[in-house]
Amino acid sequence: MLNSMSFLLLQTPTGTPKPGSNTPIDVSNPFDVIVYIVMPIVIIAVFFILKKKKKDDL
Asked: How far apart are alpha carbons 49 and 51 in whole angstroms?
């Protein structure tokens, strides 16, 4: 009986996003472009610049 009722406990809670409701990035929206494209590139570039600068200081 307990095994047959376990599927009820494993359902997604109401109000949470479902995997099928995701939408692609809208490149016409400047916020999406900045957050998902520009910022990661800047963060990676700053990481390598600081890493090289630290290596040169030693």
From this structure: 5
CA distance 4 to 6: 6
Residue 25 CB partners (closer than 8 Å, separation 6+): 32, 36
Torsion of CA 25, 28, 30, 32, to 10 degrees: 0
Model-level pTM? 0.62
Tens digits of residue pLDDT in 9-56: 667 677 777 778 788 889 999 999 999 999 999 999 999 999 999 988
The residue ranges of every structural domain in the chain are: 26-58
